[in-house]
Amino acid sequence: MSWSHRRGRILVALTTVAFTLPLTATASQATTAPSSPAPAPYALVPQPVSEQAVGGPGFALTPQTRISVLSRDSQAIGVGTYLSKLLAPATGYDLRVVKDTRAPKNAVVLDPNGPKNLGAEGYTLTSDKNGVVIRAHGAEGLFRGVQTLRQLLPAAVESRTRQTGSWTVSPVQISDSPRYEYRGVMLDVARRFFPVDQVKRYIDEAAAYKINTLHLHLTDDQGWRIAIDALPDLTRIGATTQSGFTGGTDWYYTAADYKEIVAYASSRFMTVVPEIDGPGHTDAALASVPGLNCDNKAKAPYSGFDVGISLYCLEDGTHTGNVRRFLNTVIKEVAKLTPGPYIHIGGDETPDATPEEYAAYVKAATAATVGRGKTVMAWHQLGQAPIPAGSLLQYWGEDDDRESIGTSEESDSVRFVRNGVAQDAKFVMSPSDHAYLDMKYDVSTPYGLSWSGYVPVQRSYDWDPATITGKMDGTGSLVPAKKIAGVEAALWADRAYEGSGSLPTPNTNWPAPQAYADYMSFPRLPALAEVGWSPQSARDWNGFRQRLAQQGPRWTAAGIGYFAAPGIPWPGTVTTVEGVHAIETGGVALENGGSTSDGSELLLWATNRGDNQTWTIARQSDGTYTMTNKRSGKCAEATGGAGAAVVQRACNGQTGQRWKITPGDNDQQIIASAGSGLVLTAASAANGAKATQQPDTGSALQRWSVD
Ligand code: ACM
Question: What is the pLDDT of residues 238-283, one digit of tens each?
Fold first, then answer.
């Protein structure tokens, strides 16, 4: 079955029921699932390659603690200064950064002279009662290690105001390095403009999770956001609009602004990738430069919400020449301001381009990019045309594409990826149904879209870049492992308003870009950061959600307005099984398939929290519960014995409709029929899997999140 089944359903909002209790944060709990990796002593995200608890007390920072850098290297000293400034607001300490030749006592030691085999980003971190030592081969690895150190301190360290308390670093030995070299996040500053300070804030938020690339989607139909000296109308006209807004005068980055962003990113060891999208997504350019249009007349600036509405004129030699000269001018200036290796030239969503027109754009844009000494990056559609070997393509396909692999109707995306692989491209994985941060978490998310389905936190986490371009069973990856450069989360911003299921009205609430970014990115950006950093063997959802929960107080302390997603055991909250809930296991939720009939079998489908998946759980006088479906108004009922289906039927209070709900591990519930004693069991975690009752084997498919 395809995702379109899910998209077609009627969905309504619901609220989750959570009571705040005066509990303090509990330590991370290890999962007991038999196939899970070894429990992690501390709640670190991303999970390090190796982490071992060390006995004894931790290292207590004092105002006299030194940050000791065992090098004269200015970048390594810069990491020391960064750490001192990071710790200052909450601790009130002004820790001295000193150059040393040998590690002193009472110090956080930063040693960039570690062995080469740590790689550029690898590090070791040792902390015990005597101090902390972070060792790396160069400054970048030190910086990544410092992000881990932050998470070994109490959450309050993230506060920007002075906090009382002791500042003890948990004792641990860590050895760590990334799975992938490219771990990015994209900000769509074209549909919604992010002022420089907000970009910097997002850089800091992402750097905390070891993201190393900031992709700026600088141009689209709704706006051109980078000043080009030789073409001032691009910003004088092309920057006056955003999705839903007109009349801007400063909705763009000057060269100085852009340099400031690049320098700030670089100080966080993050590379900026500028995107100049084309030949579609170009209305802002077409509104500013008449000669890019076939009639040589500038279009009106666009502030709407549609996609696939624009194309450079590539119909004849004159206009193709205009486009070529335009791209040379733009890419020359952007390349001059960009120290990183890539220029992203878009290439997505060009429904009206003929193959010849598309190829003409690709030829012009790739020549301009390579001519300025840069490597071409683009959306995976660019693979359909001749591209330079070694180009970096960004895959944004979805499960529908995977399902078509090997059939007679392979999707365009599958063909384009194959063509890209054949042209020796590398790939960054941004599957839209896992890595697009603008997809709603569930039906209740106020912002964003759901054309690629809902993306709850588990979906953003539970995928593997090595198999995401393969068939659904994980075989036949289109992209060979050695051609996978990494992962990128993408925060599109065309529906950054509340009630985004419909078009905005004059009364629509437009949150500040930062509020939108925080809500849509947290907790999913850290999930995707772990996909890019941690070895696949160290990743499992149950362990992750425990670790992720402990990040919540850090975000609260830092002022990050995150979505307290259901299914994550956030400290200080407990969920009660009574009330209105989704009943989930492994990313799928119990539902009735839209049926309102008596006797229809219950099944599992990817979680979306629509009415089909919404259950009112009510306690009965004998301590059992009934579970009533919102869409049908009918009760879940056990029929027959082991292996028999669980169905819905008009509520009748009989034993078959009574369930004993008892806690298992990790805030999960065991749901047993009061009649048979057999437990509610998902046949698998696939869409359409049956719900039956079975003897309790302890299987993960018999453990339910009731959130
Ligand atoms: C895209 O989502 N159009 C790359």
Answer: 999 999 999 999 999 999 999 999 999 999 999 999 999 999 999 9
Are β-strands 635-638 and 646-649 bridged in parallel, bridged antiparallel, or unpaired? antiparallel
Whether residues 450 and 519 share a domain: the answer is yes
Distance 237 CA to ligand 1 centre (A): 24
Closest atom, ligand 1, to C-alpha of 346 = 4
pLDDT digits (tens, 9 = 90+) for 58-97: 999 999 999 999 999 999 999 999 999 999 999 999 999 9
Residue 419 structure tokens: 């063509």
What is the best residue among 220, 379, 449, 491 to mutate for testing ligand 1's pocket, by most ligand atoms within 8 Å of CB? 379
Probe residue for ligand 1, chosen from 191, 348, 427, 451 as the CB with the greatest number of ligand atoms within 8 Å:
348
**Token digits for 574?**
């407990």
Catalytic positions, written as ranges? 349
- Domain's final residue, options 505, 538, 571: 538
543 Cα: distance to centroid of ligand 1 (angstroms): 32
Q: What is the mean pLDDT of the chain?
A: 93
Same domain for 376 and 491?
yes
Could you tell me the CATH number of the domain that includes residue 596? 2.80.10.50
Residues with CB under 6 A from ligand 1: 348-349, 379, 396
pLDDT digits (tens, 9 = 90+) for 482-513: 999 999 999 999 999 999 989 999 999 999 99
Number of compact structural domains in the chain: 3
- The answer to whether residues 158 and 198 belong to one domain is no
CA of 107 to the centre of ligand 1 (A): 47
298 in a structural domain? yes
CA of 634 to the centre of ligand 1 (A): 41
| Mean pLDDT, range 650-674, rounded to an integer | 91
| Count of other CB atoms within 10 angstroms of residue 580 | 14
Q: Which atom of ligand 1 is nearest to the CA of 436?
A: 2
Is the distance from CB of 465 to CB of 487 less than 8 angstroms?
A: yes
The protein residue with its alpha carbon nearest to ligand 1, atom 4, reads 348
Strands of the sheet with 705-706, listed across from one edge? 603-606, 588-591, 583-585, 705-706
Which residue among 147, 176, 205 closes a domain? 176
For residue 695, the enclosing domain spans: 579-706
Position in ligand 1 atom list of the atom nearest CA 349: 3
Instruction: Verify that 164 and 268 share a domain, yes or no.
Output: no
According to DSSP, the residues that pair with 125 across neighbouring strands are 134, 174
DSSP notation for 334-398: HHHH--SSEEE------TT--HHHHHHHHHHHHHHHHHTT-EEEEEGGGGGS---TT-EEEE---
The domain that holds 456 is classified in CATH as 3.20.20.80
Instruction: Identify whether the C-beta of residue 578 lies closer than 8 Å to the C-beta of residue 620.
Output: no
Do 614 and 524 belong together in one domain? no
